[in-house]
Amino acid sequence: MQDRKFKPAVLWFTGLSGSGKSTIAEKLVADLKAAGQELEYLDGDRVREIFPQTGFTREERDLHIRRIGFIASLLEKHGVLVVASFVSPYREARDEVRRRCRHFIEVHVSTPLEECERRDVKGLYARARKGEISHFTGISDPYEPPENPEIELDTASGISVEEACRRVVQYLKDHCL
After folding, report:
1. Is the whole model's pTM more than 0.90, yes or no?
2. Which of 73, 88, 134, 160 is flagged as catalytic?
3. Contact (Cβ atoms closer than 8 angstroms) between residue 123 and residue 65
């Protein structure tokens, strides 16, 4: 991978909170940058820090994903490889982002809910189950898994972060050189 530049694309990581999508995306970004790849990384938690008023109802989430998708598509249009990591629970919103992008690569981190809850160091799932957090994806709001993602990664199956990154890089080598 060294000094190979991938064509502009939008790598869109989606999955439940705690699935491992940000962990994988961050490692992938570090690996790609170390290999000389220029890219932009958009992460759900970081974007919400900038726009804390962004809510969690379906309408608010869809609007948020449409905005981020628009930004990602503009970056891609201008020659940038984009790595985006968002729960993005609704298929329709993700499909809208796909339509905006020239080369959209959906990466479904398909870790089961039980495993995501087990990993939850912040206690968000427990709070959601007690009713303390409303509109929590996987508990009080649905997660609509992708029907045909380009890449599927189940971190509960024993796949390491490194192996997950290797699979994504291999996809990029096969489709984006």
Report:
1. yes
2. 88
3. no
The domain ranges of the chain are 9-112+144-175
Query: What fold characterizes domain 9-112+144-175?
Result: Rossmann fold (3.40.50)
* pLDDT value of position 1: 45
In sequence order, which residues have a C-beta less than 8 Å from that of residue 20 and are 6 or more positions away? 109, 111, 153, 155, 161, 164
Note if 88 is an active site residue.
yes
What is the per-residue pLDDT for 4? Answer: 60
Residue type for position 75? L
Identify the residue with better confidence: 48 or 22.
Answer: 22
Mean pLDDT of 144-153: 97
Instruction: Count the Cβ atoms, other than its own, within 10 Å of residue 3.
Output: 7
